[in-house]
């Protein structure tokens, strides 16, 4: 009925969907949204309709996007054990330490456990990397990103 190819309509719907979901994810202001769509070269009337569509539906789009987000497991507890092999039949004097961790996780009201084993040097490296990541979260740049994600 529109005398337009199916591909053109599909690309238009996909573009509109992308525009609304990305704008809703970032919770951009009216002015930023208008600046974003002004570049597209649409008429002022169509720009106003798109702005009104965005303002009317952004909360609903954000709620749908939050429901679609994967539910990641959360930390519940941790058990650990240090094992040290002091000798074997072939080597009388050796020290071979191993750290065994049992990580209890909650996921969708179910509790699961993951058993991990590593040597102390790898564990120390992991601890340093995690501390570095926590330190990175305290920078102004990361705080701004986290604030915009909420």
Detailed description of the structure:
The structure is a single chain. The protein is α+β, with helices and mostly antiparallel strands. It folds into 3 domains: 6-68; 72-118, no CATH class; 123-149, no CATH class. It has helices at residues 6-26, 30-38, 44-68, 120-137, 140-149; strands spanning 74-85, 96-107, 110-118. It has a 3-stranded antiparallel sheet. A hairpin with a 2-residue loop joins β2 and β3 (110-118). α1 (6-26) packs across α3 and α2 packs across α3. It is elongated, with a radius of gyration of 26 Å. It starts with 5 loop residues before the first helix and ends with a helix. This is COMD2 protein. InterPro entries: COMM, Commd2. It comes from Scopus umbretta.
Features:
22% strand, 3 domains, 55% helix, alpha+beta, 5 helices, 150 residues
